[in-house]
Amino acid sequence: MHPSDTHTPGETRLPPNADTGPLAWVTENLLSPWYNAILTVLACLILYGLLHPLYVWGIKNASFGTVCPSGHDGACWAFIRDMWPIFMVGTYPHEERWRIVIVLGVVILLALSLIFKKVRQWKPIWVLWALTPAVIFFLIRGGSITGLTQVSTSHWGGLMLTVMFAAVGMLFAFPISLCLALGRASDIPVIRAICVAYIELIRGVPLITLLFMASVVLPLFFPPEMEIDKLLRAQIGITLFFSAYLAENIRGGLQALPKGQEEAARALGMGYWQRMLLIVLPQALRIVIPPMVNSFIGILKDTSLVGIVGLVDLLQVVFAATANPKWLGHIEEAYVFVAIFYWFMCYGLSRYSQHLEKRYAVDNK
Q1: In angstroms, rounded to a whole number, what is the distance separating the alpha carbons of residues 283 and 277?
Q2: How far apart are CA 282 and CA 288, in angstroms?
Q3: What's residue 198's pLDDT?
Q4: Is residue 63 helix, strand or coil?
Q5: pLDDT score at 42
Q6: How far apart are CA 276 and CA 121, in angstroms?
Q7: Which of 80, 157, 229, 253 is the most interior residue, by most CB within 10 Å?
């Protein structure tokens, strides 16, 4: 036994140092040194000042019943409960909403299937994923091909339309951006000039301008008898806009990759597309996962601008619901509802980005 461990009966012993656990973390990160303690207290006071009124309005004094009492000074969540189906699918016919439930179930099952490694390695699963967008479109739209009642895109709206714009924009903008990034890094002057002109032109105008052009100018390039759906025009504008931003993200990954990788592939006798598809792009895309996911989050949030061209996404349908005489004066609940939904969707993408970064981590040492 060490001499320092011996003690006489009744002797007062000091407590052990709290160098682990939550208390130690708080002490080290929030209370040490002294100015961190002051900043922590100030931050807590500011958060309390911001969150306490929200708590009183949204929870303490809120009404969770089916009817809000007159003169009520808290939130009326019956508004959200009553208008929930409209928020999700807009004016999609009630008797046909079972299609949306099936679509949601298919997407969830395919997403869960990718959790298991053996399922991911099953080649037919990727065929199912490739066919999913077309199946979803024809199931929601209906028509003679499917034998279902056709539902015009003018009835599509709410969260369904927001997610659809974002998902389709991501799906089609990604391959376009790959071609643009490779074209901008090409040694062929004509291809490089075309890609640079496209990227700089698209990035030089705001998305709202491109949406107006897609809605007004795009039909002028087609025969008068050819009518292009308003939803399709907005989707083309969103896809073209974000493909330019994604192309710059991917180009950054191409420039960050050491030149030795491509030179080694050349030494092995690989052709251009072999080098790009097997050596360069897999490594470059790993590097640019964070900025690419940031662009995807931007797509998701900026889909709210489609309301400018007459489409009713989640934001527009929620605000339109506040015009209902039954729910006049409940715009605050609408703002909170939309903010929470967008936050959860963007936060989910952010967490998935962190998962991909860890899974495909690149050692640059």
Answers
A1: 10
A2: 10
A3: 94
A4: strand
A5: 93
A6: 23
A7: 157
Contact 101, 89 (CB under 8 A): no
Q: How far apart are the first and last CA of the chain?
A: 46
Residues 6 or more apart whose Cβ sits within 8 Å of residue 165: 234, 235, 238, 299, 303, 306, 313
> What is the H or E stretch that residue 341 is in?
helix 331-359
Q: Give me 125's structure tokens.
A: 């699963």
The CA distance from 136 to 82, in Å, is 27
Residue 58 confidence (pLDDT): 86
Give 343's Cβ-side CA count (13 Å radius): 6
Please name the residues in contact with 289: beta carbons below 8 A apart, sequence gap of 6 or more. 353, 356, 357, 360
319, 167 Cβ separation under 8 angstroms: no
pLDDT recorded at residue 15: 61
CA distance 254 to 284: 5
3-class secondary structure, 76: strand
- The domains found in the chain, sorted by start residue, are 78-92+151-359 (1.10.3720.10)
List pLDDT tens digits, range 217-239.
Answer: 888 887 877 788 888 889 999 99
pTM recorded for the entire structure: 0.81
- Name the stretches of the chain with pLDDT < 70: 1-20, 71-72, 361-365
280 CB contacts (<8 Å, ≥6 apart)? 254, 257, 261, 262, 265
CA angle 245, 250, 255 (to 5 degrees): 125
DSSP state of 242: H
Residue type, 295: S
Q: pLDDT at position 365, please? A: 45
